[in-house]
């Protein structure tokens, strides 16, 4: 459920040495600040990581679509690393490169419409319901 409708992004540390211990450490490093920043229950947040470069992928499921959209905009404005106060681990892993944030709830509801169309249809439907 969390992975299907959440906000998600990858954070890549290209300079990081990577092994299973570092993967587990990175997941733990990211989980707590996300919990603190969002205030969401633990079961609404999934953090995964893998090696190649160290890649941390997080999934955050907000209680409703409006909160999720607002959070996405806030995170994009501040950048993922700054929003979750994760600059400190760059000393350990090197500079982070974050992928664009994807709102999977928007993807599943409007699969065939390009992202601009999704934004427009959301605004239109909000206007009709108020």
List SSEs in N-to-C order. Answer: HEHEEHHHEEHH
Say what oligomer this is: single chain
Mean pLDDT across all residues, rounded?
Answer: 82
Strand content: 15-25%
- Largest sheet: number of strands, sense, barrel closure: 5 strands, antiparallel
- How many strands appear in the DSSP assignment? 5
Give helix % range. 40-55%
Query: What radius of gyration results from the CA coordinates?
Result: 16 Å
The number of helical segments is 7
List segments where confidence is low: pLDDT < 50 over at least 5 consecutive residues: 110-130
Broad shape: globular
Structural class: alpha+beta
Describe this structure in words.
The protein is α+β, with helices and mostly antiparallel strands and 130 residues long. The chain has 7 helices and 5 strands. Strands 1, 2, 3, 4 and 5 form a 5-stranded antiparallel beta sheet that branches. The two termini are 29 Å apart. Mean pLDDT is 82; it is low at 110-130.
What's the layout of helices and strands?
Elements: H1 2-5, E1 7-13, H2 20-38, E2 45-50, E3 54-60, H3 65-78, H4 80-83, H5 90-93, E4 96-98, E5 102-103, H6 104-109, H7 115-129
Antiparallel strand pairs: 1-3, 1-4, 1-5, 2-3
Question: Which features does this protein show?
Answer:
5 strands; disordered C terminus; five-stranded antiparallel sheet; 130 residues; alpha+beta
What can be said about this structure in brief?
By secondary structure, the chain is of the alpha+beta class. It has helices at residues 2-5, 20-38, 65-78, 80-83, 90-93, 104-109, 115-129, and strands at 7-13, 45-50, 54-60, 96-98, 102-103.
């Amino acid at each position: 459920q969390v992975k299907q409708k959440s906000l998600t992004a990858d954070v890549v540390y290209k300079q990081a040495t990577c092994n299973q211990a570092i993967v587990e450490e990175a997941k733990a490093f990211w989980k707590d600040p996300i919990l603190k920043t969002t205030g969401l229950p633990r079961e609404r947040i999934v953090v995964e990581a893998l090696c190649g470069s160290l890649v941390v992928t997080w999934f955050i499921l907000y209680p409703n679509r409006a909160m999720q959209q607002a959070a996405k905009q806030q995170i994009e404005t501040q950048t993922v690393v700054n929003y979750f106060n994760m600059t400190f681990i760059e000393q350990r892993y090197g500079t982070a490169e974050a992928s664009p944030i994807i709102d999977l709830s928007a993807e599943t509801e409007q699969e065939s419409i390009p992202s601009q169309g999704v934004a427009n249809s959301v605004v239109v439907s909000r206007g009709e319901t108020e």
